[in-house]
Design brief:
Elements (H helix, E strand, L loop, with lengths): L13 H19 L3 H12 L3 E2 H8 L3 H13 L3 E7 L6 E7 L1 H28 L2 E3 L8 E2 H6 L12 E3 L2 H19 L1
Antiparallel strand pairs: 1-3, 2-3, 4-5, 4-6
Helix pairs in contact: 1-2, 1-5, 2-3, 3-4, 5-7
The protein binds zinc ion (ZN).
C-alpha cells in the first residue's frame, strides 16, 4: 500500500486524467516498449500524483533497484520527472516520481513519425522490386537480381522459384501509411 505521505497527491492532475482516459491503451502500448517492468511501474504512477521508488517497489513487489532502472529508462525520454527530498529521520535522499503525460503525447508522435518513415521506405522498396520465391512458407523471397543468380532455384529447398505477387502486401502497407499520416495530421 502507498504510504499516507502520498495521500495529498492522490488527485491526478487534469491533463493526465484526460489523456489516460482518452488513450490509455495507446499509453500502455508505448510503455510496453520499455518492457514488462515499465508496465507495472506506470500502472502505479498512473494512479497517483507522485510516488517514491520505494513505494512503487512495494506496490509492484519488485526490487527498488529494478524499479529505479525502469524509471531511469522512462526518465531518459522525459516520460517521468523526479523530485528529490531528504528523509527527516534518516537524512537519506528520497526520490519522488511523477508521470509526464504531455511528454507521452510528444513521444507517441515522434514514434509514429519514425514508423511512418520506415513504412514509406519499405513501400518504396516493395514497389521498386520484383520478388521471387519457391512458395514454401519457411523459405526466403529473393529480388529478381538475386533470383537470377540462383537460376530461379531456391537456395534452401532447391524448388523452382516463381514470381511473387506483392500487391496485397503493398495494399496493407499503403493503408497503414495512410492511417498513420491521418493520425499525425490531427
Ligand atoms: Zn525454398
Amino acid at each position: 500500500m502507498l504510504s499516507s505521505s502520498n495521500k495529498q497527491g492522490d488527485v491526478r492532475d487534469e491533463v493526465g486524467h484526460n489523456l489516460f482516459f482518452e488513450d490509455d491503451q495507446t499509453l500502455m502500448k508505448v510503455v510496453a516498449l520499455f518492457g514488462e517492468e515499465a508496465v507495472k511501474v506506470v500502472q502505479v504512477l498512473k494512479g497517483v500524483h507522485e510516488v517514491t521508488d520505494k513505494e512503487i517497489a512495494d506496490e509492484t513487489q519488485t526490487s527498488v533497484h529494478m524499479v529505479r532502472k525502469t524509471l531511469y529508462k522512462l526518465y531518459d525520454h522525459s516520460l517521468v520527472v523526479l523530485r528529490q527530498s531528504r528523509d527527516k529521520e534518516t537524512h537519506w535522499f528520497v526520490y519522488h516520481w511523477r508521470l509526464q503525460p504531455d511528454q507521452f503525447v510528444g513521444f507517441i508522435t515522434s514514434m509514429k513519425r519514425l514508423v511512418l518513415e520506415r513504412l514509406k521506405t519499405r513501400l518504396r522498396y516493395e514497389m521498386d522490386h520484383e520478388f521471387y520465391s519457391c512458395q514454401t512458407p519457411e523459405c526466403k523471397r529473393y529480388t529478381f537480381k538475386e533470383a537470377v543468380e540462383f537460376l530461379f532455384k531456391c537456395p534452401t529447398c532447391h524448388k523452382p522459384m516463381t514470381h511473387l505477387n506483392s500487391n496485397s502486401f503493398i495494399k496493407i502497407l499503403t493503408q497503414k501509411i495512410e492511417q498513420i499520416a491521418k493520425e499525425l495530421s490531427k
